[in-house]
């Protein structure tokens, strides 16, 4: 600013000394130079700081956005890793569940077969017991009927003469 002031003063002096129409042009030049100097001073005083603060703000926002992007990528990678882990655990759980179900089904089938065998065995035993009981009852009935028939036959065929003959035969066989 101190360097510009002597230049402006010299220009004003020349413009005043020349007078006439050239003086108007000189004043226009002086006004333009003064305006440029004033703008340069304002920009230097406030503009540079404003643009520097703005640049820092934008740089800070870009840096924050990059950090946020990096955090988002990390979070995405972690989420994908957790998803893969969850998928593997799900598949393992599914395999274990299938194996357990298969084993349970085999155990249930084995128990059902064993129970069926026991039931068959008990049924066979019950049938055998019933058959023996029926055979015994049939024998008793047959013996009883045989005795009844024998008694009937004996009563019909034995008369006093036959009795005497049987007694005599029995005595002869004893002697």
TrEMBL record:
List the InterPro entries: ATP_synth_b/b'su_bac/chlpt
Say where the protein is mainly found.
Answer: membrane
Chain segments annotated as transmembrane: 29-47
> Is Coiled coil one of the keywords UniProt gives this record?
yes
Coiled coil ranges (UniProt) are 58-122
Instruction: Report the Pfam families cross-referenced here.
Output: ATP-synt_B (PF00430)
Q: Where in the cell is it found?
A: Cell membrane; Endomembrane system
State the UniProt keywords alphabetically: ATP synthesis, Cell membrane, CF(0), Coiled coil, Hydrogen ion transport, Ion transport, Membrane, Transmembrane, Transmembrane helix, Transport
Q: Which domain of life is it from?
A: Bacteria
What is the membrane topology listed in the Swiss-Prot or TrEMBL record?
Single-pass membrane protein
**PANTHER family xref list:** ATP SYNTHASE SUBUNIT B, CHLOROPLASTIC
What family does this chain come from, according to its entry?
Answer: Belongs to the ATPase B chain family.
Q: How does it assemble?
A: F-type ATPases have 2 components, F(1) - the catalytic core - and F(0) - the membrane proton channel. F(1) has five subunits: alpha(3), beta(3), gamma(1), delta(1), epsilon(1). F(0) has three main subunits: a(1), b(2) and c(10-14). The alpha and beta chains form an alternating ring which encloses part of the gamma chain. F(1) is attached to F(0) by a central stalk formed by the gamma and epsilon chains, while a peripheral stalk is formed by the delta and b chains.
User: Briefly, what is this protein's role?
Assistant: Component of the F(0) channel, it forms part of the peripheral stalk, linking F(1) to F(0). The b'-subunit is a diverged and duplicated form of b found in plants and photosynthetic bacteria. F(1)F(0) ATP synthase produces ATP from ADP in the presence of a proton or sodium gradient. F-type ATPases consist of two structural domains, F(1) containing the extramembraneous catalytic core and F(0) containing the membrane proton channel, linked together by a central stalk and a peripheral stalk. During catalysis, ATP synthesis in the catalytic domain of F(1) is coupled via a rotary mechanism of the central stalk subunits to proton translocation.
> Any idea what this protein is called?
ATP synthase subunit b
Organism encoding this protein: Persephonella atlantica
